[in-house]
């Protein structure tokens, strides 16, 4: 059996906003110092070091909102088996990273994503945004995330929450520039023709 815990970002506003929502989706208030001590003691806490840097993840759990999972079975002594760091900004949730230690049961990453989606619905968030290494993008695509075609890097992914708005891709400026150039050239030629006719008279 596993239990989900949450820690809100270090601000009164964030705590008032996210604490009731986390408790409504079945999470228990956690302890940041306990989590940090556990993660710092396990250098291999992030199973896929290529997908997410252990050091950057450890830094992200210092002040951000955090969701983590404990294994409550007696023989595990409540080990932390998964953790993710997020920021809630207006109508968006940014996932800074999801870490699951090597050798843990399957489904922990999916459980964390499910809880974030439930949280997004309660907070009326429109989009969940993350950056994922190509090696793990397939996992997020199975959970409904799509690649951002408007970003220059091939790592951005977005999940549209039910009722949320899709971002329309921006049109290339090149077409716009060509159109403007054509208009300017056409106007210049037209004006030149008018001036020539006027001079002939």
UniProtKB/TrEMBL annotation:
Matches recorded under PROSITE patterns: GNAT (PS51186)
Domain (N-acetyltransferase) ranges: 23-168
Gene3D superfamilies per the UniProt record, alphabetical: 3.40.630.30
Coiled-coil annotated spans: none
Gene Ontology MF term list: acyltransferase activity, transferring groups other than amino-acyl groups
InterPro entries tied to this protein: Acyl_CoA_acyltransferase (IPR016181), GNAT_dom (IPR000182)
Pfam families: Acetyltransf_1
Protein name: N-acetyltransferase domain-containing protein
Lineage of source species: unclassified sequences, metagenomes, organismal metagenomes
């Amino acid at each position: 059996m596993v239990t989900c815990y949450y820690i809100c970002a270090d601000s009164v506003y964030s705590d008032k906003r996210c604490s009731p929502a986390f408790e409504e989706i079945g999470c228990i208030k956690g302890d940041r110092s306990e989590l940090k001590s556990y993660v710092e003691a396990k250098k291999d806490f992030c199973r896929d070091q290529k997908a997410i840097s252990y050091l950057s993840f450890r830094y992200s759990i210092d002040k951000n909102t955090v969701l983590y999972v404990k294994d409550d079975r007696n023989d595990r002594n409540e080990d932390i088996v998964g953790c993710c760091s997020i920021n809630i900004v207006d109508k968006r949730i940014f996932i800074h990273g999801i870490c699951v230690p090597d050798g843990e049961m399957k489904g922990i990453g999916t459980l964390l994503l499910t809880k974030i989606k439930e949280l997004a619905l309660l907070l009326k968030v429109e989009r969940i945004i993350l950056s994922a290494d190509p090696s793990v993008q397939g996992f997020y695509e199975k959970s409904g995330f799509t690649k951002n075609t408007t970003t220059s890097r091939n790592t951005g992914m977005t999940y549209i929450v039910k009722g949320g708005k899709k971002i329309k891709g921006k049109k290339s400026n090149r077409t716009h520039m060509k159109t403007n150039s054509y208009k300017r050239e056409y106007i210049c030629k037209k004006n030149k023709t008018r001036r020539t006719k006027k001079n002939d008279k």
